[in-house]
């Protein structure tokens, strides 16, 4: 029996007994992830350490920074080429 089938069975039983239906499986997963992250940050702060960024966030920030730098270099070359050609037309 998978989680969806178990949930359907629980909903049926709750309806038969007049109880409210249980939440769907997976509904609170991201809330748990956020609470664990906040708990770890609180523990780091209480121990006197600076709270770390998440690995995913740090990785994405590094990738974004490198993409921005390379895009800036490409944009500079493109402007130089476009600037030299625009004066010749006239």
Report on this model:
With 90 residues, this protein is an all-alpha fold. Helices cover 72% and strands 0% of the residues. The protein has 3 helices and no strands.
Form type: elongated
- Unreliable parts: none
Helix amount: over 70%
Indicate the mean pLDDT.
80
Count of strand segments: 0
Order of helices and strands: HHH
Annotation field: number of helices: 3
Major β-sheet annotation: none
Strand content: under 5%
Structural class: mainly alpha
Rounded to an integer in angstroms, the radius of gyration calculated over CA atoms is: 27 Å
- Head-to-tail CA distance between termini: 76 Å
Question: Helices, strands, pairings?
Answer:
Layout: H1 3-17, H2 29-46, H3 55-86
């Amino acid at each position: 029996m998978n989680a969806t089938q178990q949930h359907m069975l629980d909903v049926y039983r709750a309806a038969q007994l007049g109880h409210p239906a249980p939440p769907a499986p997976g509904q609170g997963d991201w809330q748990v992830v956020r609470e664990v992250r906040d708990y770890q940050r609180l523990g780091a702060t209480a121990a006197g350490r600076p709270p770390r960024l998440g690995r995913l966030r740090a990785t994405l920030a590094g990738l974004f920074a490198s993409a921005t730098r390379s895009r800036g270099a490409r944009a500079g070359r493109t402007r130089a080429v476009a600037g030299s050609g625009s004066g010749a037309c006239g």
